[in-house]
Design brief:
The structure holds 2 protein chains of 2 kinds. Chain A is of the alpha/beta class. Chain A has 19 helices and 12 strands. Chain A folds into 2 domains: about 300 residues, Up-down Bundle (ABC transporter transmembrane region fold); about 230 residues, Rossmann fold, CATH 3.40.50. In chain A, helix 2 packs antiparallel against helix 3 and helix 7 runs antiparallel to helix 9. Chain B folds into 3 domains: about 160 residues; about 120 residues, no CATH class; about 130 residues, Rossmann fold (3-Layer(aba) Sandwich), CATH 3.40.50.300. The chains are: A alpha/beta, B alpha/beta. Chains A and B meet through helix 2, helix 3, helix 5, helix 7 and helix 8 of A and helix 2, helix 3, helix 4, helix 5 and helix 8 of B.
């Protein structure tokens, strides 16, 4: 339960809804118990007398308790769901608050696209925590205790039987199955993961499998994996059914014993027979509500796991940073003997790299895919901690500076730039909340995007924009920042080369004294860079100006030769 | 929904079992009520001794056991039914994937297909594990209960018969209304629920722009808006179940009133009968209400089932093979009026090409001109829509599939590496035993042996799914090693467009030259030297074969070819 402590805290942040829901839940439960109990009592009474009043009272009780129960059930549902959604809102905000300091390092570090959807899925699955884990045992417990309290006035024996039944159905059986589930759960999860991987391989590798005549074997393997997953699910289903059946059986057994004990006491003259039917009906009604407890083990395990996973993510250590002031004046960037390795990989992604970037200069980083260009960019952005070496900005080691303050001085375009649901206007505003509409229109013209009106809707992840449009919009965003350090990772890879040239010219001309670092996907248009850095396998193999490198006729020259002969 | 029901009813044994168990459960419900009332009646009104009740308690215990047992059996049968149907669906899906030649050509939508196999199939679970058993119970148990009630006190039976139909009618009405409302709100709801993911995805951007803090408010606001909109939809759903509750309560109330009148005023029925009916009636209505909630589960399954049927009903193009074996030397290929058409943007107009053994063929053209489709046709991965494809004078369809693919290697731009060791990946596609030496030789020729030797586990190094952990160049070289080991007589090669390191570039060139000595090589060419060296250049434009010939011939006769080369020469530096 300790895993869920934080979630519980968040749930109870707004106690009102939870308390109202519990109150209504209790009312609904107790009213249905009262309904059954009173009808048991009144029918017994009716058998003895022929007074009209009994009938009237009976009819009135049926209506009163019936309506009260149904109405409370309605209120319970309303408030418990409201409380759940409020809790989800708190959860999202609090999670975001704790995740935010870890970004963006945490995303690139794991190179895992599904990290985010996993987070969202886990947060969503926690909506069951209140509805199906926390809430049912609490409400049931109160209803049961009330029933025990009430029956104890008539027969202590019956009260004890009901109490034992309560312990069995809301504590012992769910706990037992929850622990069984915990042991077996990893298996089905693993089987599911395995099937998903096999299916992905089968589909993505289809052509290679077909040509290498491995398709049949792989198809059989896939079927076996599917069958295994299916068996795992079957077992899980049977387990849930067993839990449900045992719970139902215990409930029935309790009413049996209540009747037995009751009948014994009546026969012995220790209990008025008039109350027998009532007491049995109370036990039947009280136990009718335990059905949700059968699903408890599943949801408990699910919530617990989700909570643990979320906690794991935000438990990552943050980058060490200081509180030093950013130096004034033109800034330079120095990287000295820097190495970096992704966790879980065995070679260095960036291998002893030193770079000197001066204000007023333009540097291009080129190299084949997988050569470490983008990782180097992440290091310059101070997103990852270096395994070795030193990064300084404006002469100060980055550890002494605040991460946000460093980014505050940068105009950044990443390979994947995110655009939010909203408008062009709202997406540009992110760069600089102070810019006017006129400035936005001017900048859009510079990146040749003035055909897009500021009011245009941008869909999630900028789906309605083409790759080139997104890149140009990202550049527009960087231009609006107006800072002196430009760090651009393949900013124009999807823009046609003519437009790309125009955009580069705009950028360079107007910001002559700024510092530019550009990762380039191709080798064209590098003639007026001050420095070209060529990377391979995480190392710098060559650097110099365009003319120097072409004259050297070494690595860069050969790459250029190949590029010249490639048709796309 | 009828399709799914049919699937269930096809399993006659299970369905019979469900019916039998439902009847048992119905009988047990009656038995339980009967013994219970009898005991209460004897103790309370007839002052019986406890000992005389023991047989009745025995009967009650048996009824309870039977009720719990049949309930368990019903649940178990449902779970098993669902598992069986899901297994069948998965097998059929896998089979249809495996038989679909288009999959080889279109690598898109794979993610969607995986989710079909995983999630959609899982979603139909509820229909079979919950809805079907509940449906059978609702069709059989209430009938039994009603019969017993009629036999005891026919007026109560009549009241139930009149009031009960209100429940399904009302359920259908409300169900439609709620669904409509939910559909209307759906878009709005999706938007709200998407905001969190949107902000998380953009978190890096927000941080770099120093805007992250502002987004907390946005998350909170959208979460709360989501809550309010959802509550509106839920409210109407909850209201409808409240109404259902009222209907059933009203019905129970009328029955109780009728019984009460007869018991108290007219004295025309006994305590026994009255109590007995009073216990059975709520059971009757509970079954109807349970059916309503099971119906909800079923609806989710139905839309998943629709997706599955749509996938399974997709027309497949057939690829036929014969029994002839192919000689182990480069074949003579003749394409006569060969064409291909499937859907939109995936077509090739009728073309004629002769490819003698040991030729070097270069396919050139803009992207979308049909180069890859032509490669797939020649590779025997796609069937032609019309025309003939002869291999050494016999139709491709008469050759055996094994013998054809034994002679073929396809080196794509992004060769797929499977989860397994490097050795397994190189050995793939070569039947029979392969010595370590042969693997090493192939790896050396492909220029990958050196890299492998630096790894701690050498050739036994496991590489992840899709070759994670290897660079693009290394993957290309492993694919080359596969070809060197296989020694095919026909090689299809999709030349990389960009992004390879110098070493891999050189190895690719040298290797291809080596492989050309023993085989026909057809290349989708992106490099000038490959094109110049080719014996035959196939110039494709917009799904048509525009011109055929070698470099000199095309330069002289085909203006678009010359233009293409000119554009390339001038395009390097702007």
């Amino acid at each position: 339960m300790s895993d869920l402590k934080d979630i519980l805290k968040l749930t109870l942040l707004e106690k009102k809804d939870v308390l109202i829901a519990i109150f209504f839940g209790f009312l609904a439960g107790i009213a249905s118990v009262a309904l059954m109990g009173s009808s048991g009592y009144l029918i017994s009474k009716a058998a003895l007398t022929s007074q009209m009043t009994t009938l009237v009272v009976m009819a009135a009780c049926l209506k009163l308790f019936g309506f009260a129960s149904a109405l409370s059930r309605y209120g319970e549902r309303l408030y418990s769901h409201r409380a759940t959604f409020t809790m989800l809102s708190h959860l999202r905000v609090s999670f975001f608050e704790r995740l935010s300091p870890l970004a963006p390092g945490i995303f690139s570090k794991y190179r895992s696209g599904d990290l985010l959807s996993r987070i969202v899925g886990d947060v969503e699955s926690l909506q069951n925590f209140l509805l199906r884990v926390f809430y049912p045992p609490v409400v049931l417990g109160i209803v049961f205790l009330s029933a025990v309290f009430f029956t104890s006035f008539f027969s202590l024996g019956i009260a004890i039987v009901i109490f034992i039944g309560m312990l069995l159905t809301i504590v012992v059986v769910p706990a037992l199955f929850a622990s069984r589930k915990r042991r077996a759960d990893g298996q089905v999860r693993a089987q599911r993961g395995n099937l998903a991987i096999e299916a992905t391989e089968f589909l993505y590798g289809f052509r290679d499998l077909k040509i290498h005549q491995q398709l049949d074997a792989k198809e059989q393997q896939l079927k076996i994996d599917a069958a295994q997953y299916n068996e795992g699910q079957r077992k899980e289903g049977l387990e849930e059914n067993l839990a449900q059946s045992i719970n139902a059986f215990v409930a029935l057994l309790v009413s049996f014993f209540v009747l037995g004990v009751g009948a014994y006491f009546v026969a012995a003259g220790e209990l008025n027979g008039l109350y027998l039917a009532m007491l049995v009906m109370i036990s039947i009604a009280a136990f009718e509500n335990v059905a949700p407890m059968a699903a408890f083990p599943t949801y408990f395990e699910e919530s617990r796991k989700a909570a643990v996973r979320l906690e794991e993510i935000i438990a990552e250590p943050t980058l060490s940073q200081g509180a030093g002031q950013m130096p004034n004046g033109p800034l330079d960037i120095r990287l000295e003997d820097a190495s970096f390795q992704y966790p879980g990989e065995n070679s260095l992604a960036v291998d002893h790299v030193s770079l000197r970037l001066k204000p007023g200069t333009k540097t291009a980083i080129v190299g084949p895919s997988g050569s470490g260009k983008s990782t180097l960019m992440q290091l310059l952005l101070n997103v990852f901690p270096l395994n070795q070496g030193q990064l300084s900005i404006g002469g100060k080691p980055v550890e002494t500076l605040k991460q946000e303050e460093i980014w505050q001085e940068m105009n950044i375009v990443l390979q994947e730039n995110h655009f939010f649901y909203g408008t062009i206007h709202s997406n540009l505003l992110i760069a600089n909340p102070a810019v006017t509409d006129e400035q936005m229109i001017q900048v859009l013209a510079k990146v040749e995007l003035d055909i897009l009106p500021l009011t245009m809707t941008v869909e999630e992840k900028g789906q309605n924009l083409s790759g080139g449009q997104k890149q140009r919009l990202a550049i527009a965003r960087a231009m609006l920042r107006g800072k002196s350090l430009w760090l651009l990772d393949e900013p124009v890879s999807s823009v046609d080369s003519l437009t790309a040239q125009v955009i580069y010219q705009q950028m360079f001309q107007q910001n002559n004294n700024d510092l530019f670092v550009i990762i380039s996907h191709d080798l064209t248009g590098l003639e007026n860079m001050d420095q070209i850095v060529v990377m391979e396998k995480g190392r710098i193999v060559e650097s110099g100006s365009y003319d120097e490198l072409m004259e050297k006729k070494a690595y860069f020259y050969q790459l250029k030769e190949i590029e010249n002969s490639v048709f796309t | 929904m009828n399709d799914l029901k049919q699937l269930a009813f096809q399993r006659k044994n299970t369905m019979t079992f469900l019916v039998v168990m439902s009847i048992f459960k119905g009988l047990a419900t009656i038995g339980q009520a009967l013994f219970f009332v009898m005991i209460a009646d004897r103790v309370f009104l007839q002052s019986a001794t406890f000992e005389s009740l023991i047989p009745l308690f025995g009967g009650l215990l048996i009824s309870i056991l039977l009720r719990a047992g049949s309930g368990y059996a019903l649940g178990k049968a449902g779970v098993n039914l669902a598992a069986d149907v899901k297994n069948e669906f998965r097998n059929t899906l896998i089979q249809s994937f495996a038989r679909n030649p288009l999959l080889a050509a279109t690598q898109g939508q794979s993610g969607q297909k995986v989710s079909l196999l995983m999630d959609s199939v899982d979603e139909i679970d509820g229909f079979f594990s919950k809805y079907i058993p509940q449906m059978i119970q609702t069709y059989s148990i209430p009938v039994i209960l009603l019969g017993v009630i009629f036999s005891q006190n026919w007026t109560s039976g009549v009241i139930i018969l009149i009031t009960a139909p209100f429940i399904p009618v009302f359920m259908a009405l409300v169900g439609k209304g709620t669904k409509k409302k939910a559909d209307e709100k759906m878009e709005q709801l999706n938007r709200f629920s998407g905001t969190f993911l949107d902000v998380l995805q953009g978190l890096s951007t927000l941080k770099l722009f120093g805007q992250a803090e502002k987004q907390q408010q946005a998350i909170k606001k959208s979460s709360l808006s989501f809550r309010d909109s959802t509550m509106e939809v839920l409210k109407s759903a909850f209201l409808s179940s409240l109404m259902l509750e009222y209907i059933s309560m009203l019905s129970i109330g009328i029955v109780a009133l009728e019984i009460g009148l007869r018991l108290v005023v007219f004295d025309s029925i006994s305590f026994f009968t009255a109590f007995f009916i009073l216990i059975l009636v709520p059971d009757f209505f509970n079954l109807l209400k349970d059916f309503g909630s099971a119906f909800h589960t079923a609806r989710g399954s139905v839309s998943a089932a629709k997706q599955l049927t749509a996938e399974l009903e997709k027309a497949n193009v057939d690829l036929t093979w014969g029994k002839e074996t192919m000689a182990q030397e480069p074949p003579h290929l003749s394409l006569e009026h060969l064409s291909f058409q499937y859907g939109e943007g995936f077509s090739l107009a009728s073309l004629n090409v002769e490819i003698p053994p040991y030729s070097q063929v270069a396919i050139v053209g803009k992207s979308g001109s049909g180069k890859t489709t032509l490669m797939h046709l020649v590779a025997g991965l796609l069937p032609q829509s019309a025309g003939r494809f002869y291999v050494n004078g016999v139709a491709r369809e008469t050759i055996s599939e094994t013998s054809w693919f034994d002679q073929l290697s396809y080196i794509s731009q992004h060769p797929y590496l499977f989860a397994g060791t490097i050795r397994e990946n190189i050995k793939m596609g070569v039947a029979g035993d392969v010595s370590d030496e042969e693997v090493l030789t192939a790896a050396k020729k492909a220029g990958i042996a050196e890299m492998v030797s630096t790894l701690e586990k050498g050739f036994e190094t496991p590489i992840g799914e899709a070759g994670r952990g290897l660079s693009g160049g290394e993957k290309q070289r492993i694919a080359l090693a596969r070809a060197f080991l296989k020694k095919p007589s026909l090689i299809l090669f999709d030349e990389p467009t960009t992004g390879l390191d110098l070493r891999t570039e050189k190895i690719l060139q040298d290797s291809l030259r080596e492989l050309q000595k023993t085989s026909t090589v057809i290349t989708v060419a992106h490099r000038l030297h490959t094109i110049k060296d080719a014996d035959i250049i196939l110039f494709l434009d917009d799904g048509k074969l525009d011109a055929t010939g070698n470099h000199e011939e095309l330069l002289e006769t085909h203006v678009p070819y010359e233009e293409m080369l000119a554009a390339q020469q001038g395009g390097g530096l702007q």
